[in-house]
Hints:
Layout: H1 12-32, H2 37-56, H3 58-71, H4 77-108, H5 132-139, H6 144-148, H7 155-169, H8 174-200, H9 202-217, H10 220-252, H11 256-273, H12 276-291, H13 295-308, H14 311-327, H15 334-350, H16 357-369, H17 377-380, H18 383-412
The site of aspartic acid has 17 residues, from helix 16 and helix 18.
Amino acid sequence: MSETKKPWFKELHWQIAIGMLLGVAAGIFLQSIGQPAGVISIVELGGDMFLRLLKMIVIPLVAASLFLGVTGVGSSKDLSLLGTRTFIYYLFTSLISITVGLVFVNIISPGTKVDIQLDGLTGKAVEAPSSFIDILVRMIPVNPFGSLSAVPFDMLAVIFFVIILGVFALKVTEEQRKPLVDLASSLNAIMIKMVHGILMLAPIGVFCLVTELVAEAGVQVFISLSWYLLTVGLALAFHFFVILPAIYYYFRKENPFEFMRQMSPALLTAFSSASSAATLSLTMECSQKNKKVSPKISSIVLPLGATINMDGTALYEGVAVLFIAQFMGMDITLFQQFLVLLTALLASVGAAGIPHAGLVTMVLILNTLGLPDDSAGLILAVDRVVDMARTATNVWSDSIGAALVETFSSKRKV
Ligand code: ASP
């Protein structure tokens, strides 16, 4: 016993779980005594403040992390070739994973299993979707600084601008680019600290959100939530154990489960830490040591992956938003599902590799679709469990990406 382990009750995920359970108990109690308006409005305030804190950090966090991801590709020809391969793999697997999620959520329909009336949550209607062309046009911000501060979020515009900014930052000299990269890297580090700080409040925030939810809706919510957990779990497992290994086998003609075993220290660390960024050094070590991915490739592909390649997160976000929409009895058209696919892809690219980052960007997709923010309370309550599974999926996809880029590069001598 050389390491000093924190007692379990000091671990954040246990604290959140306790906050949640206490919230259920408090909610049942409040419901049984007739939902006293005064108490309900206090917990509502607590939950609202917590959600506002989460939303407060979205834009700077996404902007800084995305800019670093894009500029991190480097500027030489070699790097941009690697970057292109890496991007194609990332884009391809992320799109597949969201599609898997959307198929599962449409088939299982977890949000329709329980019919609950949530007065506080159904106030706002979904905005009528504009045409696809209109969305594309509005993705280009007339005033990028305006979209950085727009309320509600103008996320597509922010992401579009930051990607363009990153691409053109690679075209100027290192000296000209450096101040902005330094700024982004400093902002990113500070924002990550801020996420940690805000997450310390998560047990209280989750307590308030769950109390309000259960007081208004009763424990049936959790029957619905268990369907949600089942849907995300099955979809993630399908992507993790079937789709990704199949892609690996197709391109490498090697046993994917042997590779999974070799990567298991990284995958298990990802699972228990819920952070791709924290796992990164282990991911690099396992892939270099066991699979002979060269340091040159793993040092580009894996950090980039930990920043922008989030198959699990993308899948979860699509499922979560559709679950909420179903739960609230909204009809989501095929066009809106396509919008979810697009936003989930971009939001997963923008999510940092830290615990609950996907939760932050999920609030943002709700905003994009015009769904009420407070409906996020439904998912927040069980986010830790989902986070562990989606982070392991994220790291598994990064690892396969590194192995495949290695294969392509060694074939073509780059
Ligand atoms: N925790 C995830 C990761 O580090 C991101 C997320 O919250 O979805 O990969």
